[in-house]
């Protein structure tokens, strides 16, 4: 660190061949962040991601709010994946309190979480279509995800910010006749997303743009600690729903999708395969779910009383492993709450993938990291 | 008679006065035409600031299809835009960039504050890194409340902005 | 407490998968991990807790580099999931907690090793220039790079040996205390 410059400003060595480009935060191919790239002609020689444009201090504010009031806050980083964003927090509070959740509530959670994973991935896919200049791929997923948003709206009453999971279960039971409606919508949804292969994944133009760009080898994926679809696209079979099953995932038949290539194409295809798998999980869960029963237990005060206790829970969200580290000192507010989010962990791979790529490939590599800047900044 | 009035000394003044009279006469129909053009081409800048951009994107989806109103066409350079939709929370790091983007846009320009965070700070009213509303940064035309606002609300906000532009003076007299 | 919860669910389920361990001897594997570390380092480390799938270890900052190296080479852990700082003003210390996991070893897939260490806490911090310093783990676990940058700006813990201790999330003109310290109060509270 140099003492003269304020921190945050790196010294850029001026070279007559190398040009420094700021991509973002106002750029169609960057989202809410800035990527400082140095280019030599058309090739990127160095890349320095600069996140933090949506850093809202969630972790600090959580220390001033009690465990229930924190619920709407913690889903705000990923409002279109809000059930998964809340999941580790809710599991962690349950472990701290020693609550056992009713079985029906666990199934409802699994269904909501899988629906949300699809809603998130469809939005991600729509934006990926825009980044690649493929307008049809914006319109189709953006329209089809409304089907599942309707389902979630039936359950919770809100389009995206559900705040449906609470410590001890879920807020409401499923509405009447939900099972039939859900099954019908999910079946139709699965049929629709299978059609995407013809327009997007088998499209020769898309393949030529994304194949062999930004290749992340298996060793590097492990070394950089990437997670989620980025990891699975590089050939590491790691899915927390299978490896560390939470709630009732143990009783469901879950398969993971692994691809060996590790390029942008594989990273864009794995979430799509995961959506097909999500449809399977939802169908199984609807079948195995107890038809009636309570969905929420009453919270009792912490039996341990005052004393430091910490818990680290993680779930598989749409962007990979999402961990929540809660340190409790027995009060009604968390002493410290840390979210370890998949987007932030995948960001570290960006400088490696972009080195040596053409500048035109930057949007496709960047968005294939399954990155959501609001979540990464928290 | 006109020849007597107009001398080489006051020709400039005379022409200027004539221009003023002409301008006032055609201002109303011309202004209407200009405003009519403006309300059907409200193109937003592509700057996302926070999570409301999810619903902003959903507004362009086939179900809501905001482009049928001639507004919020999803692409375009900064220099061709005349609308900035502030999509949610403005952090202290983003605020100077937002103002920079606004200053680079050509006149006329309009601002929609979308979401509770852009209006008052919303859920993040006591955060250390969030501005309590964007009123201190940009002059806001329309507030669209909600956390996040549904796409219908955004469309209604845009229609309100169109109504507002219709009643605005198309040109400013010096 | 967590073990009880798990036992009930495993009784309810019809057929246990072969991969899932029986609930009764759950802490055995975790105990074997902590035993290996204790065997190697003796009283240089302190085992904080052994829970289901979680082993917590506390190390002094002088030994953390060696312990982390052993965790990587001897125990096959290969990446860091999260680095969180916790401020303890009454102890005059800031704790930095590494959550370390493994992708390459399938028997460790569930396990998270919680490695905690503590740095001195200054009353009037000057980030980067005061005594709040820890050795970096970036040369052992590459994945801590951005996490440690975040801890530096949020708590003022300077990681010696980290090549890139720049600011990450906060605005460039941030001149206040590091925001996640307990003595930094937010508006109106």
Instruction: Determine the fraction of residues in helical runs of chain B and give it as a percent range.
Output: 40-55%
Task: Give the helix tally of chain B.
Answer: 6
Mean pLDDT of chain A: 84
Separation of termini of chain A?
25 Å
Number of structural units classed as domains of chain B: 2
Mind telling me which CATH architecture of chain A this is?
Orthogonal Bundle
CATH class of chain A: Mainly Alpha
Sketch the topology of chain A as an H/E string, one letter per element. EEEHHHHHEEHHHHHHEEEHHHH
Number of DSSP strand runs of chain B: 3
**Order of the strands making up the biggest sheet of chain A:** 1-2-3
- The proportion of strand residues of chain B reads 5-15%
Based on the coordinates given, report the CATH architecture of the largest domain in chain B: 3-Layer(aba) Sandwich
Strand portion of chain A: 5-15%
Question: What's the CATH topology label of chain A?
Answer: Cytochrome-c3 Hydrogenase, chain B
CATH fold group of the largest domain in chain B? Rossmann fold
| Fraction of residues in helix of chain A | 40-55%
Q: What is the molecular shape of chain B?
A: elongated
Main beta sheet of chain A, described? Answer: 3 strands, antiparallel
| Poorly predicted segments of chain A | none
Q: What is the CATH C level class of the largest domain in chain B, in words? A: Alpha Beta
Enzyme class (chain B): oxidoreductase
Family (chain B): Belongs to the complex I 20 kDa subunit family.
GO cellular component, one term (chain B): respiratory chain complex I
Keywords (chain B): 4Fe-4S, Iron, Iron-sulfur, Metal-binding, NAD, Oxidoreductase, Translocase, Transport
Description of the structure:
The complex is a heterotrimer of chains A (378), B (174) and C (189). With 378 residues, chain A is α+β, with helices and mostly antiparallel strands. Chain A has 15 helices and 8 strands. Chain A has a 3-stranded antiparallel sheet. Chain A has a 3-stranded antiparallel sheet with strand order 6-7-8. The longest helix of chain A has 29 residues, at 103-131. Chain B has helices at residues 2-5, 11-39, 53-59, 95-104, 116-120, 151-167, and strands at residues 83-87, 110-114, 142-144. Chain B has a 3-stranded parallel sheet with strand order 1-2-3. In chain B, helix 4 (95-104) links the parallel strand 1 (83-87) and strand 2. Chain B folds into 2 domains: 10-38, no CATH class; 40-167, Rossmann fold (3-Layer(aba) Sandwich), CATH 3.40.50. In chain B, helix 2 packs antiparallel against helix 6 (151-167) and helix 3 (53-59) packs across helix 6. By secondary structure, chain C is of the alpha/beta class. Chain C has a domain at 25-36 and 43-160: NADH:ubiquinone oxidoreductase Nqo5 subunit (Beta Polymerase, domain 2, 2-Layer Sandwich), CATH 3.30.460.80. Chain C is built from 4 helices and 7 strands; from the N terminus they run ααββαββββαβ. In chain C, helix 4 links the parallel strand 6 (133-135) and strand 7 (158-160). The model of chain C is unreliable at 1-24 (pLDDT under 50). The chains are: A alpha+beta (378), B mainly alpha (174), C alpha/beta (189). Chains in contact: A-B, A-C, B-C.
């Amino acid at each position: 660190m140099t003492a003269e410059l304020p921190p945050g400003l790196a010294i850029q060595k001026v070279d007559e061949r190398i040009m420094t480009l700021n991509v973002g935060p106002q750029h169609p191919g960057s989202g809410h962040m800035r990527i400082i790239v140095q280019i030599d002609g058309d090739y990127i020689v160095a890349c320095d991601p600069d996140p933090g444009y949506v850093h809202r201090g969630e972790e600090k504010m959580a220390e001033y709010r009690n465990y229930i009031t924190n619920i709407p806050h913690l889903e705000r980083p990923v409002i279109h994946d809000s059930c998964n964003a809340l999941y580790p927090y809710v599991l962690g509070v349950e472990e701290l309190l020693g609550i056992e959740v009713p079985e029906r509530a666990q199934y409802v959670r699994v269904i909501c979480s899988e629906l949300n994973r699809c809603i998130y991935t469809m939005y991600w896919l729509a934006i990926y279509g825009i980044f690649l200049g493929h307008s049809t791929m914006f319109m189709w997923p953006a329209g089809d995800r409304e089907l599942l948003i309707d389902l979630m709206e039936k359950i919770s009453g809100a389009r995206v910010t559900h705040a449906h999971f609470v410590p001890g279960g879920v807020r409401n039971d499923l509405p009447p006749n939900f099972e039939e409606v859900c099954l019908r919508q999910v079946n139709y949804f699965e049929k629709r997303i299978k059609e995407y292969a013809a327009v997007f994944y088998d499209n020769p133009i898309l393949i030529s743009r994304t194949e062999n760009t930004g290749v992340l080898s298996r060793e590097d994926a492990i070394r950089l600690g990437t997670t989620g679809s980025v990891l699975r696209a590089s050939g590491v079979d790691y899915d927390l729903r299978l490896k560390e099953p939470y709630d009732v995932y143990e009783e469901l038949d879950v398969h993971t999708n692994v691809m060996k290539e590790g390029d942008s194409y594989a990273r864009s295809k794995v979430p799509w395969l995961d959506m097909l798998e999500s449809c399977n999980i939802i169908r199984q869960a609807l079948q195995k779910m107890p038809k009636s029963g309570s969905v929420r237990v009453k919270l009792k005060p912490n039996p341990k009383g005052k004393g430091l206790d910490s818990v680290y829970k993680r779930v598989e969200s749409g962007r990979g492993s999402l961990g929540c580290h809660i340190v409790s000192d027995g009060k009604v507010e968390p002493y410290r709450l840390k979210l370890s989010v998949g987007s932030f962990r995948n960001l570290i791979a960006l400088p490696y993938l972009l080195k040596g790529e053409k500048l035109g490939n930057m949007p496709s590599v960047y968005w294939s990291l399954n990155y959501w800047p609001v979540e990464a900044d928290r | 008679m006109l020849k007597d009035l107009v001398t080489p000394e006051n020709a400039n003044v005379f022409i200027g006065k004539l221009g003023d009279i002409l301008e006032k006469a055609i201002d109303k129909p011309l202004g209407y035409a200009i405003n009519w053009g403006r309300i059907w081409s409200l193109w937003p800048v592509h700057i996302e600031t926070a999570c409301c951009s999810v619903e902003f994107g959903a507004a362009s989806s086939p179900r809501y299809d905001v482009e049928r109103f001639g507004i919020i066409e999803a692409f375009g350079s900064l220099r061709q835009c005349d609308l900035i939709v502030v999509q949610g929370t403005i952090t202290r790091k983003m605020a100077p960039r937002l103002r920079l983007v606004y200053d680079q846009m050509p006149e006329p320009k309009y601002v929609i504050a979308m979401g509770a965070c852009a209006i008052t700070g919303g859920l993040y009213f006591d955060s250390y890194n969030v501005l309590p509303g964007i009123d201190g940064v940009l002059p806001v035309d329309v507030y669209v409340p909600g956390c996040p606002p549904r796409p219908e609300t955004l469309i209604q906000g845009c229609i309100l902005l169109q109504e507002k532009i219709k009643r605005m003076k198309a040109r400013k007299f010096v | 407490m967590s073990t009880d919860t798990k036992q009930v669910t495993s009784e309810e389920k019809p057929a246990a998968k072969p991969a899932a361990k029986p609930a009764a001897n759950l802490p055995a594997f975790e105990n074997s991990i902590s035993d290996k570390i204790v065997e190697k380092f003796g009283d240089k480390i302190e085992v904080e807790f052994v829970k289901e799938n979680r082993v917590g270890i506390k190390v002094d900052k002088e030994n953390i580099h060696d312990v982390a190296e052993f965790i990587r080479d001897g125990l096959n852990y290969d990446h860091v999931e999260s680095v969180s700082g916790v401020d303890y003003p009454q102890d005059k210390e800031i704790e930095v907690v590494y959550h370390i996991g493994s992708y390459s070893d399938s028997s460790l897939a569930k396990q998270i090793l919680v490695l905690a260490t503590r740095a001195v806490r200054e009353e009037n911090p000057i980030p980067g220039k005061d005594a709040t310093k820890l050795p970096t783990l970036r040369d052992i676990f590459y994945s801590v790079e951005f996490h440690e940058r975040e801890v530096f700006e949020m708590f003022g813990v300077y990681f010696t040996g980290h090549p890139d201790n720049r600011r990450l999330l906060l605005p460039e003109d941030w001149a206040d205390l590091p925001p996640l310290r307990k003595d930094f109060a937010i508006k109106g509270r």
